[in-house]
Amino acid sequence: xxAPDNNEGGLSVLDRPNSYIGxxxxxxxxxxxxxxxxxxxxxxxxxxxxxxxxLRSPYAHAKIEGIDSDEAKSMPGVIGVxxxxxxxxxxxxxxxxxxxxxxxxxxxxxxxAVEKASWQGxxxxxxxxxxxxxxxxxxxxxxxxxxDLPVVLDMETALDPATPxxxxxxxxxxxxxxxxxxxxVEAAFSNATHIVEETFRFSRHTGVTLEPRGLVADxxxxxxxxxxxxxxxxxxxxxxxxxxxxxxxEADVRVICKxxxxxxxxxxxxYGDEMATVAIAKILGRPVKFIADRVxxxxxDIHSRDHKVTARMAVxxxxxxxxxxxxDLTGVGPYSMYPRTSAIEANQVISLSGGQYDFENxxxxxxxxxxxxxxxxxxxxxxxxxxxxxxxxxxxLAAAATGLDPLEFRRRNLVADDAYPKTSAAGAPxxxxxxxxxxxxxxxxxxxxxxxxxxxxxxxxxxIRGIGFASFIEVGSPSPLFYGTGGARISAQDGATxxxxxxxxxxxxxxxxxxxxxxxxxxxxxxxxxxxxxxxNVRVKTGDTDNSPYGGGTWGSRGAGIGGxxxxxxxxxxxxxxxxxxxxxxxxxxxxLDILDGAVVDKQGGAERITLADLGAQVHFRTGELPNDLxxxxxxxxxYRVKGQPFVLTNGIQASYLDIDPETGGVTLLKHWVVExxxxxxxxxxxxEQIRGGVVQGIGGVLFExxxxxxxxxxxSATMADYLVPMAAEMPDIEIAHVETxxxxxxxxxxxxxxxxxxxxxxxxxxxxxxxxxxxxxxxxTHPITPERVLRALGVx
Amino acid sequence: MDETTVISCTVNGEAVEEIVPAxxxxxxxxxxxxxxxxxxxGCEHGVCGACTVxxxxxxxxxxxxxxxxxxxxxxxxxxxxxxTGEVADLQEAFLARNAAQCGFCTPGxxxxxxxxxxxxxxAGRAEIRDFLSGNYCRCTGYQAIIDAVETxxxxxxxxxxxx
Lengths: 797, 163
Ligand code: FES
Ligand code: FES
Fold this sequence. Notes:
The structure holds two protein chains of two kinds.
Chain A: H1 30-34, E1 50-56, E2 62-68, H2 70-73, E3 78-83, H3 84-87, E4 116-117, E5 123-129, H4 132-139, E6 143-148, E7 174-182, H5 185-190, E8 194-206, E9 214-220, E10 225-230, H6 235-245, E11 253-256, H7 272-284, E12 288-291, H8 294-300, E13 303-315, E14 321-331, H9 344-352, E15 361-369, H10 384-402, H11 406-413, E16 422-423, E17 429-430, H12 435-446, H13 448-460, E18 464-476, E19 494-500, E20 506-510, H14 519-531, E21 538-542, H15 559-586, E22 593-596, E23 599-602, E24 608-611, H16 612-621, E25 635-640, E26 648-660, E27 667-677, H17 684-704, E28 734-738, H18 756-773, E29 782-783, H19 787-794
Parallel strand pairs in A: 1-12, 8-29, 10-11, 14-15, 20-21, 27-28
Antiparallel strand pairs in A: 1-5, 2-4, 2-6, 3-5, 7-15, 8-13, 9-10, 9-12, 13-14, 16-17, 18-26, 19-20, 19-25, 22-23, 23-24, 26-27
Chain B: E1 4-11, E2 14-21, H1 26-33, E3 52-55, E4 58-61, E5 74-76, H2 78-84, H3 88-97, H4 106-119, H5 125-131, H6 143-157
Parallel strand pairs in B: 1-5
Antiparallel strand pairs in B: 1-2, 3-4, 3-5
Helix pairs in contact in B: 3-6
One FE2/S2 (inorganic) cluster sits between chains B (100-106, 137-140) and A (210, 262, 516).
């Protein structure tokens, strides 16, 4: 615990009377969304607003020899046509590198392709018209003289000397490489009783936010102020980026995020089409709207995953892990994404894989290469689905080699719950984790013996049925070491300002944002608890750089851990401020008073002394009645960042139970269980629904989702009919339980909950598939595990 | 220039007459001409269900229907069914169960679920899952939505209360 709260008489602030921590309360903004009264960015209409559409490269790699847009310019409704060259002076280029990722290199990237297009879908020409339809009409009349260049698609050959180099100025197609070594892997392998080896492949995914990316950029040429309504997760980060590249002071750029239709890490990057929109709004001095259509989302949103990992694990005769090594290769498109870079996912894989296990000898290498496919960057659970699927796939192989039940193998190898703080073999600091408690809870919750008996019975009837587990760790609440240290203007700190209004209500302004997770609800719960008011009397404002304390926004499972703690601390200060004034007004010591349910009460006995509404009225309107030496401050701001650790880890275990159809190869998910330790649970329902949604996104990745390219680099699954995301009928019911080990880095003790579902589900399901296939001597380690891959493994086709 | 046509229809109980481009689809008509922005556009190719609205009593994809086709028709959107209170119990159940996260799919989901409530009042969980499979939700994982619909069905059977 950090600063003890002296006013609680030994009780944690979380245990205050009428605490909302740990209670399910409905989200204040959900009612509006359910009534269809949300404001998503495409719902915004401004006077004289124009619409943008883009001509995008139909080629994966092509030189732009000339652009003829004369005819388009005279089309009805067309206000302007802009090429990459036209925008060079209005929007500076950028490079997706971070200084602390040594050796990471990337070519400069512009809002629109200038000399050449480097992936199919890269924006080449922007057309502004009075409607989107008219802008699209005009695009039909633009002739771009593209000259085909050789394409680099296969990450496995990207570094071969015979492969063309995408950006000759970089020298080769290597983005970044890093090796992590802990202990003595060679000795470990030479002492092993069993050594298991496997290769895993993970397809390319994308986020498919149901609301596509979009923005409205509104430039006032008189005041020279830019307002951007953005479907995004990180308003302050975007403020800094827009300001820098269209050359405005940050203070004159306002970014507003209203309702966001899903983000999952897709909406926290710098996209050329969005930068072009802002630059063009500045040129024209009028509001300009760009909303990606679905095909644009598929081809121009960031992608993720696309890894090939070979791994080896050494165990002794008792099944104790002696050593673990892996080689990760990933292809990230033609540029490293700005400003977070495209090296983080691979870095997470090698930093985290196997971190749930107690072993000392580790070697992992990441190789990140360029290719002519869509750009890749951080999508929900960054790296974890890969890190976990590999370690858990290897754990099951090692268990089988040793003749152990998969859970028994995990019991013997998971880090003991009392072993923290600890540093993993990869060098990652670990604290406050509970693998064994989670595993025990899982055994009880799912009734493992009964499920095993059911599997035996089903197999006796000819079913191909399996059970799979995944123990995992998951990074949340990233510290400044993640991005800021490397030079990116991405805040790891967030502030909360709490204000007591004259009527006794509390207004919270906060930097973390809402995209449906329930950020506003949990912030209101924490504020209500910390100050001592009913939750109905708390209003939360977020997503507006003009009105929120500076902060990083919501990503990396940081909303509760960082935004929540800032709110708690600000709430405590505000309560003290209020009690100080109340003490003076009531002529008693502030420490004999408390605030409960919107009124100042006697700490002993709880008798009501004055309501906050009365106190508010007195302080704001009848200030003359106050002693002259008393200056009431009914506003408090506190900031919070994670200190001394690179991040706050969470942990848990997932289990999957499924059937495979021997004829179609299709997987039917019968049931899925999750035990998660995200520290203090602020709102059980919201946490559980974050986990369920995350699990289903992980299921999409392991069973359905695949960005498919043909041999020319054409993206051939770029519609919702071809890129399959989970539908209601295919999804299982998901049962969830919690172990609560509060993080010792904060008083609130909350860790992130947004990503663990996605990080662990693919591993559990892959293991269940391979458990089902084991009696048939078949295995699948390529994701997605499609019916075709299953049938091939079974030798049916 | 766009070819246009004049349409008259009833939208959420109000008579509407508008000149529309022949190629304009129904959801864009509702959103852009009538400012009924509760219906959303998620794919514009008939897969995601975010644009679901009711046309002459039956749900349709607003992105696959042309505005020109609805001449003389009756259209109801999320704004309309919210105002009449027809789905108040369903919406209450969505709220209580946190069946909406980002809320982008939700209006379409509510429109589809409302149809299920009337056409198959005896639907079990699997049937609810099947019926709603034309509406994608990327946030919730569906379970909360299925729960909310199940609760509403049960409530209607018990005489109109969702609790
Ligand atoms: S927008 Fe109509 S189905 Fe997706
Ligand atoms: S709540 Fe976000 S898509 Fe359903």
